[in-house]
Amino acid sequence: MNPRVKPPVSPDLLPRFAAIVGEKYAITDKAAQEPYLIEMRDLYHGATPMVLRPGSVVEVSAILKLANDTGTPIVPQGGNTGLVGGQLPFDGEVLLSLNRMDKIREVDATSNSITAEAGVSLGRVREAAANVDRLYPLLLPSEGTCTVGGNLSTNAGGTTAVSWGVARQQALGLEVVLADGRVLNNLNKLKKDNTGYDLKNLFIGAEGTLGVITAATLRMIPRPRSVETAFVGVASPQAALDLFGIANERSGGNITSFELMVRLGIVAVLKYDGGSRDPLGAAHPWYVLMELSSQARSGLRETLEDILAEGVERGLVQDAAIASALDQSKAFWRIREMFGEVQRQIGGSIKHDISVPVAHVPAFIAEANDAVVKLIPGARPLPFGHLGDGNIHYNISQPVGADKAAFLKRWHDVNAVVFDVVLKYGGSISAEHGIGVLKRDLLPTIKDPVAMELMRALKRTLDPKGILNPGKVL
């Protein structure tokens, strides 16, 4: 048993928890629990005596009050799309699923805000915004299943962070149930509210260890009137970065996404995803998926063409295709979105979600590649991700013909060499996926000691009995 967690839940308590939500929403059947206890990478498998599915903030409050009174550990869960194990119970904790709290409470187009409960999917928020001719700017490949509560609890990033920021930048106010069952009502939609500490930011990115987010007021922005997308072949990450500089200068801040992909990943997508086709006529070492958006109805395509033309003139762009229709843009994006899916087809994959200052991305990739291949000859680095904000998913596929299990046992060895390079460049070992359990023990080795103590002090203050998501983050 993990020393950070409480003893197993007493069976005598389970009927009391079930009474709060009703028997229908207190799941004890092991088969019915299964979807809540496995995660998409199949790295972890949880265990719980009960999955609770409350339908209101009142029920969440009652659950946490009882949990606090009895010392019962609780693991909150959103859409179960997390990648670091933060959403799973590993030591018999009660699982608190927020997926029944799925109401959009208000859409205010005048104030450019939308208030949604924690269990509302990202896709539904974006759809509700579109219905009033607005855009909710957070975008993730898992938008159909990831939820508002999960996005905020992990401070999710995504492909549009270069322009509109991560989940934290989208939150105007929160409703949070504290460990003792009290409800923090902070669902304001104000852009200006200078009345003391900004408490909402304590809970965003805390992975459910300080409180349970039950609803949020989120910002919307005017919906772009034009969008242009290009798939670009380049020789190197440095060429891609130089192209990004041109795009920044010429687009007037209209870069929505700027994604970097290595050829190995493209090859895997084309081989294993029947719905993808190579947009360019010849192979290139690296690729950029660039998207611009604007409130202007015209002129954006010309801007994109000018960016690419200068890229060709300076020897940065080897070839490029501009989407002529929405279907073609979707086809470009499908290649990028399938990168993670197809990696399992080419063997074991050791994954990293890192960030470094944008200017250092090419040097990081070069040095990390050298270090990994030196450690494991034949290993195949597969870096891709959000070049525009310095967030690279630095994944390594096993050598051809290697034993998968033996390769995956080197996970911590690979971490050590990769994170050494990350830290050399002043980067982060977790850009957008969080800490969970995957990186929990690494955190004290790279985080400022004073910052760690402040985090522990906040945990002791807001959750003195340690019932909220024990064993995660800290």
What can you tell me about this protein's structure?
With 474 residues, the chain is an alpha+beta fold. It contains 18 helices and 19 strands. It has helices at 14-21, 30-37, 57-70, 122-131, 148-153, 161-164, 167-170, 200-203, 237-251, 263-272, 300-313, 326-337, 339-342, 361-375, 404-408, 411-424, 443-446, 449-462; strands spanning 26-27, 51-52, 74-77, 94-97, 104-108, 113-117, 134-135, 171-177, 183-186, 212-219, 221-222, 226-234, 255-262, 286-294, 317-322, 349-350, 353-355, 380-386, 391-397. Strands 12, 13, 14, 15, 16, 17, 18 and 19 form an eight-stranded antiparallel sheet that branches. Strands 5-6-10-8-9 form a five-stranded antiparallel sheet. α1 (14-21) runs antiparallel to α3 and α9 packs across α11 (300-313). It is globular. The two termini are 16 Å apart. The mean pLDDT is 95.
Task: Explain briefly what this protein structure is.
By secondary structure, the protein is of the alpha+beta class.
* Structural class determined from secondary elements: alpha+beta
Distance between the termini: 16 Å
Low-confidence stretches: none
From the spread of the alpha carbons, the general shape counts as: globular
Fraction in helix: 25-40%
- The Cα radius of gyration reads 23 Å
Strand content: 15-25%
If helices are DSSP runs of H or I spanning 4 or more residues, what is the number of helices? 18
Number of strands: 19
Q: Average the pLDDT over all residues and give the rounded result.
A: 95
Largest sheet: 8 strands, antiparallel
